[in-house]
Structure formats: structure tokens, C-alpha cells
TrEMBL record:
SMART domains: AAA. It comes from the Eukaryota. InterPro entries: AAA+_ATPase (IPR003593), AAA_N_dom (IPR025753), At3g28540-like_C (IPR058017), ATPase_AAA_core (IPR003959), ATPase_AAA_CS (IPR003960), Mitochondrial_chaperone_BCS1 (IPR050747), P-loop_NTPase (IPR027417). Belongs to the AAA ATPase family. BCS1 subfamily. Its cofactor is Mg(2+). Coiled coil: none annotated. Pfam families: AAA, AAA_assoc, AAA_lid_At3g28540. Residues 237-377 form the AAA+ ATPase domain. It comes from Jatropha curcas (Barbados nut). This is AAA+ ATPase domain-containing protein. One of its GO terms (molecular function) is ATP binding.
Length: 454
């Protein structure tokens, strides 16, 4: 055992040897250090050092991201309006990093419109927070395949949800109200499609007696200013109008004038295209605020006829609507529980024959104001002459007035005569001859009736 220990001790270097080895290593390290500082720049040294630190610490400091998805896959009846808002908002955020963009020039717009292409990204900055948008498309079980993804650091989740999205909505509102182009919507399948509405009709240009025009305008003004009133009395903020009278008396022109006066979009709802009660509810729910819902030629649909006079309920015409909506569903959408799902809307019904409509449709709350679109009057003729010929008086006016007062002639037929010439004398002579022929035909019919009675 003692010999083994002695052998081990002989293998251990002496103190002098260890000191010599240490001195040698120290000298080598000093030489390497001097060479490192001499041949490696300080900037490169700092860059390498930073990269090494980042490499070992990146897993600890890498931020976590959250994502919001905007799509139309929600279960329900209405479209996700944030899709349209986002598309419009992002059109103003397209920058040089977006190498592929969609552009167009549309009617009524002064400049080109830019749009984001599917598959592209946009990085938006809001109060120092970076928000990344991705526009994509995919097949979904419910709704369309178009969607947006919004990605951001999770520590800003509340800010993005409560502040940034409101910023997007408010920006969209300001952009659209700055130069709003009215839209005319029609229903294709289960969705509303729109075109620009550029009808020039105004209340000043309508061939309608002044008192009636003023009554309509006053009623519209009163409606606009009564939001709090409607809420206080517990009623939906809406208004219903019935325009009735023979064809050609200006019902469509009055609707256009109302839209231009209120600056409301128009939704043209054809009842013949409605397939079921749920389809009708969906159509009504997808109408935006500040809109006029127009249901024209109401008398042409057997569902809304007076039920007490439904002797032909088994006819082929009636059966054609067997799979469509029910009258109770229409009433519910106009003045029932479903009507309270949207505010600041006007519903306008038109008919040539008011007497055939079910009385349930005609009561206040459904059709609040009944407007008789009558044949042309002397006052209406003067407005037409001013619109078409730019004249306020003429020596033929008195004779024309006398004929119009005793005739059933529509404003549309008078307007057609006025359009035949730009010369006032020629155009008014044409109107006078037209009225004389109408009077001759009327007198002949009356004579034949008297002869039959004799």
C-alpha cells in the first residue's frame, strides 16, 4: 500500500513545474487576446456578441401573438358587416410593400379605387401597435369563403379589441360619409347586390301639388328628428308610406326624391322572389340603417289581397305563391317583433289598386302615411313646364290648364309630350293637341254611354 502511494506522488508535477505551466499559458492567452483586438474590429466583435446573446435568449423573450378572424361563417341570418368595413378601410392602407393590388374606376367616382388582393398582407400601425392583416379565401360550411386575419402581440389584445377595431369602424364611417354615393340594392339569391343610384328626382322637380309635397317633406323631417321619441314610447324607429294611384302618376319618382332628400340607400324588394317566411326575414334583416325598403306593385301579389275577397284562392295564380311567404310574416317584418331588429328605416309600398289590399296592411304602424298619386293638375303641369322647358309662363298655359282640370291625364304622359321639342311653342302646341284628342275620345265614350242608356 505504501509503495502504491509513493508511486502516485511521483506522478504529480512539482510546484515549480505547475508555476512554469501557468506562466506559459498566461503568456499564450495574452498573445491571443492582443491578436484578437488587433485583427477583429470592435463593431464586428459587438455584432457577434449580440447575436450570441440573442441566440441563447430568444426562446425566453420571443413575443406571443393572438389572431382575430373576420369571416361570414357565423350561424345566423345577417351578414358580418365587419367584412365590408375591413375591405374598405384597408383600401386606404395599401402601400409600396403590396406589389399586387386590384384597381378599378367606377361610375360616380372621381379617382381610381384600390383593393387588396386575396393572399396579400398589410401591416397597420395604431398608436405604436403593429397590426398585421391577411386577406384570404377558403371554402366554409356556413357562408362565403372570404375572410380577414388580424394578428398582433397578445399583450395588446384589449387595445386591439376595444380601441383599434372601433378606430377601423369610425374611419370607414368618416370615409363613406365624406362623399357618399347612394346605392340601389336588388336581391340576388340570398344576398343584396348594389349599383350606384343616380336618379335626379327631387321634391322641387316633382309634378305634385305644393301642399302635398310640403306635407311629405315635413313628415320626413319629423321622422328624422324623433329617435329619442320613438325609444321613449317603446316603438321601432321606422316609418311606413303607401303610394297609391294609377300607373304614370310619379310613384317611382317620389321614392327617388325621398332617397335624395334623406340621403338614404334604396333596397328594392320583389316579393315574387321571396321563397319562404325565413327568406323574407333574412332579406329584411340584411338591410342597413338609413335605408328605404321599397315594395312595389303590392297588389300584384295574391298574398296581400283582402282575405274577405279571396274567392279565387284556389286559382292557379294563387297556387303560384303557395311556397312563398305568408301575410302574417310580412306583417311581422313590417310592424312586429322582427321590425325592431333595425332602426332608422323607411318602408314604402306602392300599388295601383289600394282596395284589393288586406286591411291589416293598411293600418297605422305599417303604412303610416297614405299618399294618393293623382292625375296631373294645373300646378303639376306648371312644374313640368318649368323642368322641361325652363319657362314660368306662356300664353297657352290657360287653355292647357282648362283641359287638364277636366281630364284624367298622368304627369308621365304630359312629360312625354314636353320632351318632343326643345322649343317651348312647339312643345306646348303638342301638349295642347294631345289634350284635345284625349278630350275628344272622352266625349265620344260619354256619348256612347248615354246612347246605351237610352
Amino acid at each position: 500500500m505504501a509503495s502504491f502511494v509513493l508511486e502516485i506522488l511521483r506522478l504529480v508535477p512539482s510546484t515549480s513545474s505547475l508555476l512554469s505551466l501557468y506562466a506559459s499559458l498566461s503568456t499564450s492567452l495574452m498573445l491571443l487576446r492582443n491578436a484578437y483586438h488587433e485583427f477583429i474590429p470592435q463593431k464586428l466583435e459587438s455584432f457577434v456578441s449580440t447575436k450570441i446573446k440573442n441566440y441563447f435568449s430568444r426562446n425566453k423573450n420571443q413575443p406571443s401573438y393572438d389572431t382575430f378572424i373576420i369571416d361570414n361563417s357565423w350561424e345566423g341570418l345577417s351578414r358580418n358587416k365587419l367584412l365590408d368595413i375591413a375591405r374598405f378601410y384597408l383600401s386606404s392602407r395599401i402601400g409600396p410593400k403590396n406589389k399586387i393590388i386590384r384597381i378599378g374606376k367606377f361610375r360616380g367616382e372621381k379617382s381610381f379605387t384600390a383593393g387588396l388582393v386575396k393572399g396579400e398582407r398589410i401591416v397597420d400601425v395604431f398608436e405604436g401597435v403593429e397590426v398585421s392583416w391577411f386577406f384570404g379565401d377558403r371554402e366554409m360550411e356556413n357562408g362565403g369563403g372570404e375572410f380577414f386575419e388580424i394578428s398582433f402581440e397578445d399583450k395588446y389584445r384589449q387595445k386591439v379589441y376595444y380601441e383599434y377595431l372601433n378606430h377601423v369602424i369610425n374611419t370607414h364611417k368618416a370615409m363613406t360619409e365624406e362623399e357618399k354615393i347612394l346605392k340601389l340594392y336588388s336581391r340576388t339569391g340570398r344576398h343584396w347586390e348594389s349599383i350606384d343610384f343616380e336618379h335626379a328626382a327631387t321634391f322641387d322637380s316633382l309634378a305634385m301639388d305644393y301642399e302635398l309635397k310640403k306635407a311629405i317633406m315635413d313628415d320626413l323631417d319629423r321622422f328624422l328628428g324623433r329617435r329619442d321619441y320613438y325609444r321613449r314610447i317603446g316603438k321601432a324607429w321606422k316609418r311606413g308610406y303607401l303610394l297609391y294611384g294609377p300607373p304614370g302618376t310619379g310613384k317611382s319618382s317620389l321614392i327617388a326624391a325621398m332617397a335624395n332628400y334623406l340621403h338614404y340607400d334604396i333596397y328594392d324588394l320583389e316579393l315574387a322572389s321571396i321563397r319562404s317566411d325565413s327568406d323574407l326575414r333574412q332579406a329584411m334583416l340584411n338591410v342597413d340603417r338609413k335605408s328605404i325598403i321599397v315594395i312595389e306593385d303590392l297588389d300584384c301579389n295574391s298574398k296581400v289581397h283582402d282575405r274577405s275577397n279571396s274567392d279565387d284562392s284556389n286559382s292557379d295564380d294563387s297556387n303560384a305563391y303557395a311556397s312563398n311567404f305568408t301575410l302574417s310574416s310580412l306583417l311581422n317584418c313590417v310592424d312586429g317583433l322582427w321590425s325592431s331588429c333595425a332602426e332608422e328605416r323607411i318602408v314604402v309600398f306602392t300599388t295601383n289598386h289600394r282596395q284589393v289590399l288586406d286591411p291589416a296592411l293598411l293600418r297605422p304602424g305599417r303604412m303610416d302615411m297614405h299618399i294618393h298619386m293623382s292625375y296631373c293638375t294645373s300646378q303639376g303641369f306648371r312644374i313640368l313646364a318649368s323642368n322641361y322647358l325652363d319657362i314660368k309662363d306662356h300664353h297657352l298655359f290657360e287653355e292647357i290648364d282648362g283641359l287638364i282640370q277636366n281630364m284624367d291625364v298622368t304627369p308621365a304622359s304630359i312629360a312625354e309630350e314636353l320632351m318632343k321639342s326643345d322649343d317651348a311653342d312647339t312643345a306646348l302646341e303638342g301638349v295642347l293637341n294631345f289634350l284635345k284628342l284625349k278630350k275628344k275620345d272622352k266625349d265620344k265614350i260619354e256619348e256612347e254611354k248615354e246612347a246605351d242608356l237610352c
